[in-house]
Amino acid sequence: MKRSTQNTHSGSRLSLSFLGRALAIAALATCLHGCGSGMQGVLGSGIDSVLKTGSTPAPQVTDPNGPAILMALTQNPEPGVEWENAEEGSRGKISSVDRKEENGVPCLAFQSTRESFDGIHLYEGEACQTPRGIMALRSLTKL
User: Fold this and answer.
1) How far is Cα 100 from Cα 128, in angstroms, rounded to an integer?
2) In this predicted structure, what is the pLDDT of residue 43?
3) 54 with 33: CB under 8 angstroms?
4) Are strands 135-142 and 119-129 parallel, antiparallel or unpaired?
């Protein structure tokens, strides 16, 4: 009788061992399936691999006087408006403003002087309305 009890214990250990391995394999297979099917949307036909979020390019104006000029221009878009950039030690006056539309977007083409330690210069620029309704500089170049 002792022998049959021992066979029962070794048989249950064997089945527990087999069950543990089967569960581990099933868990691994489930994880690998999830990883593989997640990539299907990226690499397969589910989602386009190239996404476009907008057609308007970001403003590329890096002139440190741009924000001061834009603020003066948006507060009063008329010739003769003065602006000042205390951080850079420069100031100027908007000398001309031309209202126009580009692809249905309102824009302001303008000219402005800039006065600083290196002299007086003439600038030309353009500000256009963004989809959010605020004006942004598209260009600002020294003539």
Assistant:
1) 9
2) 44
3) no
4) antiparallel
- Checking 100-107 for CB contacts under 8 A at 24+ apart, the result is 102/128, 105/129, 107/138
3-state SS string over the chain? CHHHHHHHHHHHHHHHHHHHHHHHHHHHHHHHHHHHHHHHHHHCCCCCCCCCCCCCCCCCCCCCCHHHHHHHHHHCCCCCCEEEECCCCEEEEEEEEEEEEECCEEEEEEEEEEEECCEEEEEEEEEEECCCCCEEEEEEEEC
* pLDDT tens, residue order, the chain (143 aa): 555 555 555 556 656 566 667 666 766 666 555 555 544 444 444 444 444 445 555 556 788 899 999 999 989 889 999 999 999 899 999 999 999 998 899 999 999 999 998 899 999 999 999 999 899 999 999 98
| Residue at 142: amino acid letter | K
Q: Which pLDDT does position 45 carry in this prediction?
A: 47
Domain ranges of the chain: 1-51, 66-142
Contact between 94 and 83 under an 8 Å Cβ cutoff? The reply is yes
The CB density around residue 71, as the number of other CB atoms within 10 Å, is 14
